[in-house]
Known about the structure:
This protein is α+β, with helices and mostly antiparallel strands. The protein has seven helices and eleven strands. The protein has helices at residues 54-67, 85-93, 96-106, 122-130, 132-142, 150-179, 209-222; strands at residues 2-10, 30-35, 38-45, 73-75, 81-82, 109-118, 185-188, 196-205, 227-235, 243-244, 253-254. Strands 1, 2, 3, 4 and 5 form a five-stranded antiparallel sheet that branches. The chain has a four-stranded antiparallel sheet with strand order 7-8-6-9. Helix 5 (132-142) runs antiparallel to helix 6. The longest helix has 30 residues, at 150-179. The protein starts with a strand and ends with a strand.
Amino acid sequence: MQRYVYGIIRTREIVGFDVEGLGSGTPKPESIPIGDGLAMITTPFDGEKIRPSRKNMLAHTRVLEHVMTQHDVLPMRFGTVLPAEDEGEAILNAHKQEFQKAFEDVEGHRELSLKVFWKDGVAFREIMEESEELRTLRDNLAKKDPAQSHYERIEFGKKVEAQIAAKRAKEADDLKFRIQHICKKFAEGPINDDVMIANFSFLVDAEQEAKLDETVNLLDEVHCERLSFRYVGPMPPFSFVELKIDPVNATPEPA
């Protein structure tokens, strides 16, 4: 039978995990040793197509989060299925060196994420307070007929967007400066919201997690009237070492 693989851990034992796996009726995940002190976290797979639904992706993450309460874990890309057990173990076994190297980065570390947003109206209000030019343009446009000042308003909007973009970059750099030195690795994700300032992921030594918590909480207190902080974790280190296994070529590669 094929195997669905959630991730890789360091153990020589077959260990069961008391968490629901992917798919109803599937046995609970367990570790299957692949040699050199490594094991895959896996459940049997019946060959049906795995839909990238929110439910399935949450189940994949839920297993990894449960496992990481007991072990450091290398997460596999969602949807990783290996052939029958012996062949699947051989594929993973052929790449133990890559897994061991990846463990050097994540062992003893946790991933946390931070998203920071301006509160309603803050960005526009602050750039208007900071720029005499924008205030003058705004006041002049307020006296003009909108139909006759269409292009002027477009140009005003472009200036506002440019000022907000510059302000966003400055705020993000300041936040990064105050946090980055605590982390072993630091990643920036996409900004996918007009009011989003920063989308950070951190790989942090477990002993430094409390210091990071303290720093983020202090920043939240200082900026509570103008910024919103969404701080999440710990979680599987997807942003720093997610492996994708191609059963045909048997080549793990960073996602």
